[in-house]
Fold each of these.
Amino acid sequence: MFFQGTLFLAYAYAHLFSDRVGRWHLGVMLAAFLFLPGLNDFFIHSSHQEPSVSNLLITLLWNAFAPFFCLSTTSVMAQKWFAASPWLHSKSYHALYAISNAGSLLGLFVYSLAIEPWVGLDIQGVMFMALFTLWFFSGVMSFFLSNTKKVEAKVEVENDLVIPKGYELILWLWFSALPSALLLATNNVVVLEVGNIPIIWTLPLALYLLTYVLAFAGWTRPLASIRRTALHMVLAVLFFFSGGQASSEWLSLLLYLVALFWLSYGSHIILVGLRPPPEKLTQYYLAIALGGWIGGALVAVVAPIAFGAVWEYPIVLILLAASLVGWRQKETERPSLLKRAPYWVLTLLLLAVLVSKLLPPAISSASQLVVRARSPYGVYRVIEEESVVGRFRTLLSGRTRHGRQLLDGRLPPEPMSYYHKAGPLGDVFSIFENRSNHGDGGKCRLAIGAVGLGVGAIASYLGERDCLEIYEIDPLVVELARKHFDFLRGTKGKVEVHVGDGRLLLQQRLEQLPHAAFDLLFIDAFSGDAVPAHLLSEEAFRLYRKLVKVGGLLLLHLSNRYYDLAPVASRSAGVNGLESAIRRRTMGEVARLKGEPLEDPSTYLAAWLRDGVGAEIEWGSQLRSRGWRAVSGDEWRNAPPFSDRHLPLLRTVRW
């Protein structure tokens, strides 16, 4: 939304000053060099600040606003310069907008696939500086080429429609806001229902940019087909969105992406039909930018406050389809009722299927929705289901399970899922219980720090004098864990919950008490679809090492559907002088467990100091005796390195 707002301000500048600034705009372009990210280290200093909206906005304003503003203004200014020059055909000026979006599309894939996974921020900064310099000289050349001849070109562009001027701005805003809103809403529903598959965010954005390229390049003939099929497309999508079962998650993903492309394409074709003559070019782009900003703000800011689920998706989908179906072009000839009969028959059939799907209860009697809630970090559901051992309650975010509790009345309740006592976490706590030097005589027999709350199941392991500090970034998760699960209120130990980014809070903890604080530091923030890669960097492990006592343990829960994070974590541990061991519990192994049907496959990595007194022998032998595998030096050296300047998460994908 920040970049959409900056784009609008850039277009506003171009609209207000393009006829007056002339060569002075080259000075504005030159001034942008002072604010390039490579010329200041504000981001490094701000990285220790709380990730609030205000701090994020300040960082973006300082590092990104000026370069992006100038890039956006010059793209419009250059189009206007060329529109008034002898170098461009008078009726093809809008094709430059297609070329601009084609460049954005190319840059999206080049950066995502070829640059970001292999090049760190330092080299990226040099590359950006070089490309920005090339852009500056290209802008200078464009200005002087367009002014080598004084041309008074009266450009006439035939609009496809004759529209009253009072409605012109409204239509520009409407048909730019709805596709932008649909783009963000599609991202939300794809992440929720399909999962945040690696680089999945590039597909909707790429299709969105492609619709701009095709429409403004002159491929406008499909509009009639889009209008005829828009209603059918929406009915099919709503069927799956309302709970219709696809043969695979990829079918749902494909349908959502096709709907985004098809409906956005129709909307942008209409925008091309509404294009003005060159003298109104800046007004036109200004309205498009404002519409995109409004659509993005409605989904990113208003929707999470107004809706408990992703209801913005069907709302925007229906509005956009209705706008396309209701659009009337100049042609007056209408097909006969007989010719339109198949269209309405198909429409009624799809509508009947959708209604039949919505009539039964959304959740069967064996599974009951307890609560649905939403925050900026996701949409959460608490559900109750029957199992072979009884009824249990689960916290879900999209397709990711964040913990479950067996509802048998026991306090503290038995931990299920990844925290099961027969699993890797149970191994670690059993070793702590058997240690002869357990506890240091202080107020806490066992001091534990945990990043990631889930449902608070780790609290069930606490004894009467054990202390647990939990760091959770989403306050809604804290509320759900306290209200709908019994782990926190049923524990025997002392629990403190702190809300904020786990790494920043741990850094603050170290600064307040500059000594090792924890016998066990447990990092569990990776099982969700969005991976906080900054918790896996070598610098992060340097912080963890300072916080763990000699003889203590650093434990990471690395279970994830899409990423293999264990090699990265073992490398960051090895670079910081830590030995490590891995425990993977596969689906087959879990299935063979008797009486433990509520455990899930999992991956854990344990790390400890090499030079700890007795620590290497104790942790290494104890873990190996429980099925853990030691990580060799040659093994972790081959893993991709993670640092705060380069987090190549794509290289850890399970292709």
Amino acid sequence: MPPTASVCILWAWAFLSLAGIGRAGRRAIGLRANRPDLILYDFWIGFVLTLGLLQLWNFFLPVDDRAAMLVTVIAAVGWTVTRGETSAPTTVLERLLLAIAIAIVAWWTARWSLGPIRNYDTGLYHLPMVRWIQEYALVPGLANLHGRLGFNSSSYLYTALLDAVPLGVRGARHANGLLLAVLLAHSLFAAIAIAKSRSGPRAADLFMLFLLGALLSQPTGNALSGMSNDFASIALALILARTFWEQIDAGNAQSELTGFVVILVAAAGIVVKQSLGILAATTVLASLLHAYWQRGRVPRSTIAGLAVALFIGALWIGRGVVLTGYPLFPTMALPVDTDWQTPPYVVLNTRYWIESWARAPGLHWIDVLENTKWLGPWFSRVSLDLQTEAASTLAGAALLAGIAVTWQRPPWNYGLFLLPTLSALVAWFVTAPDPRFATGQILTLQSGLWSMALACACAKRPRPLAIAATAAAVLLVGAFAARHSHIAPPPVASWRQVIPRPEYVQRRARGGLQVFQPTSGDQCWDTPLPCTPYFRPDLATRRGDLQSGFTLELAPACADWCESATVKPPLDIGAFDCFHHWRTPQLSGAIRAMGDIGHIGLHTPTPTHAALRLRPLSIEGADTASLEIVLNSRSLGSYWLRNGVETTIPLPLGPNFNSIELRLRAEKPAGATKQGVGVEYDVFEIVAAKAVG
């Protein structure tokens, strides 16, 4: 069977299964509706309910073909009990045209999903996480093996489910493509609604139409490629906005259905991507307030939605505790005392890398989080990456302002619609301002402003301006498409690309646990489990088998790449990065070679007295050198170093992470022209730690 056909069949199974579960869930709380795009909303309801089901399932069993069979059976029941409902256009011609359009969308998206995986993190931890879910029930302390395996995203459960369907394709590769196809279907239904409208287009329909260009450009980026949860978060953010827009739209007869969907999609947004928390919470709050203002009470369906959302959230928090010992990893809030709890300095190291990489990719977090020097380069980079989106957003805002002043004042609910998005963008900038973490919010703001402007313009002369609005949306689609030179799907030659399995070595921890480590780079890809790019000698299983989980018997010397470092802190101090700004040792792995600047990152939960003990083996071009020690941006003074002479430098460490900068100044002989300074140490360690007080 051709690969494209296999992918489309897989998607047909997944779509019908999730929509069937959604129909069953909707009918269970007494929600009935009759609208052409009802099946799309059933899909999203089923998507959320399936995430909850798989979370519960994975506590006890791996997500394999048995889970796929269970989903199929529940979906069949859902379709059976709702067989009397209609959810399609009324005329035969409309159904035929819609079926052709959806077939084209599915074929185009499937072709793109068969292309190369360009998302780096898929090889780093996405695929390994999916494989753990497929082969084992939820494993305690998985973050001790590899910190990024502690990222608790339920999208990997959905991805593993698609991979369990035996159709000759790796379903995990195509999980995001189905979500894109459903979003495009929403835009098709919106276009039909605008074309048939006699009273002017609704803002919610215009919103989806203005998103069409951005959706068509998604396959050329990295979010859709591979198994990243970034695109799932984008899709959920856009559907959340679309559904909320429908709920608050004046005269919307389906506000009870849309209010229910808003709550479920918000819950899915949190369990798929923790960074959507502010957007989800503010949207739910605004939805509840609007429902109360509109009806004077909160509908029973909304209360049912809140109960389901809280149950799914509780399962998600439980998964986080099992994976890491923290409910909201990589934050340290509300830690749970378990024998598999991830060490605090590993948690903080992971969190700081996320925050710093979002500000200044490629730089160590020690150089980024302590200052605001990243702001200028960040603004230049983001301005370049988002120049089209920024220009379109400003144009939409200007058009809305002009129409509001000269023609039609916008309804008050427009501000209510923008409130969650603006709140989320503020939180995004403060925490981790990488554009990929806010793509959904940025597109919501852009398309929301345009849809508001044209909805206002159509309010007085609906029919002619509805046609103009549709034409403007088509032009905007062309503007987005022109930004990318490869809208056409990849060639046939790329169809049979396989997921790599890099060369690896076997490493044995002190307790006898055998792990696999890539020989180069940090991507495990399809390497046998357990695989980690960060070997920790003190890693062990809790009860002798992988299913029992992982624990760290002793504190590791470093959080990531530092297993061979000579910086060996005491057990109550963890090192973040012993190699930062350090040279490759020239004599042997036991020698620490330092340039004119070196960094050490240390962590201690409480204020602690420690000391840095070092003995130079050689100093470039000199017998002596001056070494200034700067602890947390505060100078501790300078010390003279001599070859073969041991020096001890006190370190009054504060709680949490400590940044130690070593600034070397060598005394060069007269007439020396050699540039650069360096020193090699045969003793370099942290010693004599004790708590203050």
Amino acid sequence: MSQVSRRTCNLFRRSWKFPPHALRSERISSTTTAYLTRVRSGLSTRSGLSTRSGLSRTTDVPALTRSWLIMITMGLFVVNCAIAAEDHPGAATYRKHCAECHDQPDQPRVPPLAALQQMTARTLAASLAGVMAPQAAQVPRSELRDLIAYLAAPASASQEWIEALRCPAEARHIPRSATVRLASVGVDPGNQRALSAGQAGLTSNDLSHLELAWALGFPETSALRSSPVIIGDTLIYAINQAGVVIALDVRGPCVRWVYDAGMELRTSLTHGQISHDQAALLIADRAGQIHAIDPASGTVVWVAQGRHSSGAMITGAPMIHDGRIIIPVSGSGVGRAVNPRYECCVEHGAVVALEGATGEQLWTWHTMPDAIYTGKENRDGIKLRGPSGAPVWSTPTIDTKRRLVYVTTGQNTSLPATETSDAVIALSLDSGEQQWHFQALANDVWNMACRVPWERSGPNCPSPDDSVLKDFDFGASAILVTTKSGREMLLAGQKSGDVWGLDAASGELIWHNRFGLGTPLGGVHWGMAVSSGRLFVPINDPAFNASVAEPGMNAIDIETGRTLWRTPVAPDCTPERKARATGCERRYGLSAAPLAVADSVVAATIDGRVFVYDAVTGKVQFTYDTLRDFETVNGVPARGGAIDSHSIAAGAGMLFIGSGYGSFGQPPGNVLLAFRPAQADAK
């Protein structure tokens, strides 16, 4: 298929909201028929034809004829696009190497074809060179080029909407005197994820009466994952897959400035003072580089390497205190184990400290020693290495009083197991030396070769005799709190559904609570929030593998660990929603980190719904369904999807939601939504 015809077909698909997977020959029969039925209904209505009662009295016969001709032409165009797409040389490569996973809606960790087709060639190439490298290694290089060309969204002038939405020349800087309202994903160094009404510019009453102020669509995007920084009336937001950071005056909105990182970005933004006279925005890219950006102008201050090895990634946001930048490194190699010929496994997590003024590395703490050959082989006779894993997925927590850094870790990915996996660990801010650790689950060795039941697993999955095989890591930051009695504690939530209350000074266990039995993508996934002595615990629990699912929002007394209230969330599988969210009856829990605002808690589901809860009672105050198409202020076609990771933020009198997260079998999307108090209620 020529590039011109492919671009034309994609333009047609987007303009008429035709599902991407339908433009494949094996699916034309059912999908195209259903779609053309909808088109016929719409055209018939516009031409005066009643689909229930035949010809109406006002039928315009010439208009009716034109409508049917349009429908037939569209049908032929769809078929031609589908046939042409299947003739693309990359189509055969996709079917041979990719379809087995990406065409399966029940694969929880694999983005569907529809999500892949919204990615740029740059994003796809980066994924194939990074997390998907083991799979890409099995494909000839010439076929990889064809595969990317087949899958990638057509190249577009993706920056044109930015230029069209620019603020007036005199308003393209952020005043240095403007108040920082949201500095990091955790809000404060203790990662409490809580904003007062004054900080947010929103009361609980406002949050119970919201309306959509505007929607912004991002081209060639299938997932939004990052928390912004808010300074004055400016929202600074990372469009991760596009590799750009934009500063939006939310009152327009209009674009003050844009920073192009040159590659895909991975983390949320953090604002802080990197030297006595320089504030900066910090963010990490796919290559593990930390970008320090001037918040006033969007110009680069410096770019420095933030990881300890070339195979590692940075997922949690950098944190900064006293001119020292703390970087969590999520090296695990969890995906490489899928390749049965891979000598599993070598990567491990780390924490790296940088000098704020220059980006120079100061110290590195490793979750374990480098892997070595263990003398054992997998069942295919391939040598095995270890230990590995214990990645640090989450944003570090800073104890400014004790000058400690608290991090949480994931599971091991190969034997032998270490004491630092599935753990909460305290490090010296000054030296990186480990002060104490608390291991929540021992001997949890798991990688993506593992399946349920274990007999279906690949050769690099450990035996049940050697591992608990749970994948119950910590993806959420630990939260530093002070109770009413004055005790300083750390609160940590795990994918198992366990919530732990620990002494901040020693790591000693104070209390423990649990919700459900957890799943590899369940329990507490990306975060929790604290306000007024209450810990708000979202539970995801996508229901698969016969797990006991308890998705919903919960509140715990931080002093005792006692459950205060529980508000379950139920699936919403109307036919229209089910068409957009495959498996909605199983995937509908709360995975994204919630945000406490005033006396309310904002949370969202992986099937695209926003919930505002009363912090005291757990009663639902407001809901909004984002799983739909949106008219955007920048003219980019946009649709909502799963809300996940760190996609909830507030400030400048608005609530911001990034809708769309095309991973883990969840619906992709590409829209940033801004909500304000309903105008009728604001008077």
